[in-house]
Amino acid sequence: MFLSLAWRNIWRNPRRTAVILAAVVIGVWCMVFLGALMRGMMVEMVDNGIATLTGHLQIHRKGYQSDPVIENSMRDPGPASKALQDSLPAGSHWTARVRVNAVANNARHNAGVTLVGIDPACEAKVSFIGHAVAQGQYLKPDDDYGIVVGQALLEKFETKLGHKLILMSQDTGRQIASRAFRIRGVFHAQQRATEKQFVFVTKAAAQDMLKLGSGISELSALLPEAASPQKAADRLRGELPGAYEVLTWPQLLPLIKLYLGMMDSFVVIWYVVVFVAMGFGIVNTTLMAVFERIREYGLLKSLGLKPWGIIKGVMAESFFLLLIGAALGNALGLATVWALSYHGIDLSALAQGAEFFGMGRVIYPEAHIKDILTANLVVFILGLVVCLYPAVKAARFTPVEALAHT
Amino acid sequence: MPIVQCDHVNKTYRQGNIQVRALREVSLEVDKGGFVALSGPSGSGKTTLLNIIGGLDLADSGAVVVDGESLEQMSQTQLAEMRLQKVGFVFQAYNLVPVLSALENVEFVMLLQGVPTDERRKRARAILDAVGLEGRHDRRPRELSGGQQQRVAVARAIVSNPAIVLADEPTANLDSKTGQGLLEMMRQMNQERGVTFIFSTHDQMVMDFARRLVIIRDGQVVDDRVKG
Question: What value of ipTM does the predicted structure carry?
Answer without folding.
Answer: 0.89
